[in-house]
Amino acid sequence: MSLKHSFIKPKAILTALLVTSVYTNLAGCSATITPEINELVFIKAQEDINLETLNRRKWDNPIVADFDQDGHTDLLLLDHGRLMKMYWNNGQGKFLKPITIRGGDLHGVAVGDINQDGKLNIVVSQGGGAGTNLRKPEFYQIEKNRKISKLADLDKNFVAGRGRGAKLVDADKDGDLDLILPGAMSSKDKQSQIFVYENNGKGHYTLHSRLPTIRGEAQRLKITDFNNDGIFDLIFYGTSQPIKLYQGDGNLGYKNVTEQVLAGNQITHVLGIAEIDFDNDGDFDLFLNRSGEIDKQYLHYDAEEKNLAVAVRNSKKIDIKQIQAGDILKITNFQKVLKKRVYLGKTKTLLDLSKNDWHAGVDLSINHHDANGFPDHSDLEKDSIHIGYLGDGNWRLAALTQFLGTMTLVDVIINQIENKPIDQHSGILLENIQGKLLDISASSQLDQLINTTGTAVADYNNDGFNDLFVVKHGTLANPVKQALLINNGRGQFNLVTHHQIESAGMGTFGMGADALDYNQDGLVDLIYTNERGLWHLYKNSKSIKQKNNFIKFKVSNSPTGKATALGAIVTLYLDNGITQTQRVGYGAAPYSQSFNDTVHFGIGKQAQFVKMEVKWTNGESVVLNSISDNNNSVSMLTN
């Protein structure tokens, strides 16, 4: 079922659709897995989008927004150190062939209308060459005819640095979008690299302040409002550093309130944070993805599948002295930052990889004739991989690299090996209770999620309660079945076992995800990615057994036009007493920020619309007390 849209532009504040979706009502299910839950199935949608099939490094989540403002959600996808591509939605449930905006060492991306001219902008945080080439952010403007142009005059007031993230936020409640740029520490600038820039209302920025220094790789940033005062707060997180919570004062100032809000609970190894009002009480709770990360050495051998995952970085060595592989050693998805130097045999013959895409994963089949012997230990080259054939089907592999090198050896037997796993960390659900965040992971059953990296929150079965799609870190040695958890409406999440969302390749590990209804059939779909892997688009399929309804609101600028929709709060009131709340934009990306201006509410089978309210970031609000009964019609609210 497709939906016909006829958007009326003049004076448009928001549009609303009430339609019928197809899915089982799970609001009354028990904490155990039920057959109804397992009817929730997703289909890989490769026919709907022309995604690349080469494994590549990634930086962050997909970027979801209606960039050309035609009523259909588009995608901006970025491969780390390579290309940033736009996928236009053709309005018929498919994406056009992507166009490349630019290449290079690009990091966090934020989307919003920075000068309130009705056109969306893209802010791109650039890497700084490990401190050797400090750079400023770039700005782009997207016309409604899909023309994309660089705005060259906006970077003069910015401090050059090692960019990591980009977040647009109305930090002073005046309606325009200020900008926070977290960066990595630089030897050329010893001050903090967490920059807060103020928007003058016309899309020009001046440096307001620098937030306290963030050590390690804890520049990941979640924008939320944990004390529910209408002023945005900040949470910095990442790796082994404890998360830090900063309360906004409404004037671009921030105070560290970590101790008070978390009641002394130190939470580390957080890789993603998602807002979810899981209990429909009107405030935003938080789900935290947590995982160990590949630090110096990583080995995982799956004896049943006979696959060995290898990763090494920070000039630490891995030496596997007995690998049974026969006459040919097979390696899949070998990736290494910068030069892929592989030496074969005792003579250290350099394997010619010049014809391969240097940025993509490489599959190797090494014949024993080309790799006889192994060099002396003292002859190993730095920042390289050494492979040698020892005879009788046995091989040896040693790796010593500064930047992360990863690979998976396929169909090998290793009799004696000590796995070197990443640390294990469980997911955390923090319930917001009057501005304090209480850990309820055990009672919600979300502590069962071990080592996850990203989340997409949505009501995937349209029953009126937001669910979780969670990306797992994985072992690199096996395909990974991702996690889909349905909110049962009583404070627990139940695992779906037959959803069919899987990362089929090896040598990859988890990253991020986002939710969208790209084909506008009323069922929320998914796009996610794996680091050193692929982008994956999955279509939410339909069950014919029961039907759940949904309502969608497309939010525009405030009535006066002074505030954009980004960050606005939409509250839906139903006749069954349930109230649902969502924030426009702001997915769970650590470094980037989407801007999906359409909010989707599942309402179950029988619930009826009572009213809805939109509150913009500058305090303006609108209440809608009626909605059209025409399932495919558009109701327009004007001043």
- Derived from helix and strand composition plus strand pairing, the structural class reads mainly beta
What kind of sheet is the major sheet?
5 strands, antiparallel
The low-pLDDT segments are: 1-33, 629-639
The number of E-state strands comes to 49
Please name the CATH topology of the largest domain.
Methylamine Dehydrogenase, Chain H
CATH architecture of the largest domain: 7 Propeller
Tell me the span between the first and last alpha carbons.
32 Å
Keywords:
single chain; about 650 residues; mainly beta; Methylamine Dehydrogenase, Chain H; Lipoxygenase-1; 3 domains; five-stranded antiparallel beta sheet; 2 helices; about 40% strand; disordered N terminus; signal
Please summarize what this structure is:
This protein is mainly beta. Residues 1-33 and 629-639 have low confidence and may be disordered.
Please characterize this protein's 3D structure:
This protein has 639 residues and is mostly beta strands. The chain has 3 domains: 42-293 and 422-544, YVTN repeat-like/Quinoprotein amine dehydrogenase (Methylamine Dehydrogenase, Chain H, 7 Propeller); 297-410; 549-637, Lipoxygenase-1 (Sandwich). The strands form 12 sheets. Strands 11, 12, 13, 14 and 15 form a 5-stranded antiparallel sheet that branches. A 5-stranded antiparallel sheet has the order 22-23-31-25-28, with no helix packed on it. A 5-stranded mixed sheet has the order 24-30-29-26-27, with no helix packed on it. 51% of the residues are buried. The model is unreliable at 1-33 and 629-639 (pLDDT under 50).
